[in-house]
Amino acid sequence: MDVFGTVLIVVSLLAVVIAAISYWGSGRIYSGLGRGDLELERERPAAATSAAEAQEEIVQMLEAKSRRREARGEAPLDVEAELASLTSSGGHDPALREEVRQLVVARNERRQRQGKEPLDVDAEVERQLHDLGG
Q1: Which of 46, 57, 73, 107 has the largest count of CB atoms under 10 Å?
Q2: What are the extents of the domains in the chain?
Q3: Helix, strand, coil % in the chain, rounded to nearest 5
Q4: CA 30, chain centre distance (Å)
């Protein structure tokens, strides 16, 4: 029985030493995993470049939509007018505007209960709609 205990302790200590050496030697390998062309978290392009690319992609999708409509025998889309309506800052859905207004009013009620100064509802609605991307 004494030999078994000694062998078990020696094998365990040897395994710990090998694991420590393996961990220490492979630290750089693990830190580099996932890096490369298919990495999800890459450096973001400049905002102006991405906005221009987004605009171009919207135009391409609208042109494709227009071609599909023509293929079905429907009237083609006016791509420029559709693009202007999609990217205009004041073109929010009235239902969305009303929902944001309700949220701002509810926030004002909470602020007043807490003793804080209420927000300007119209300015806050416009700010939140602008933050949403419009």
Answers
A1: 107
A2: 47-87, 89-134
A3: 70, 0, 30
A4: 26
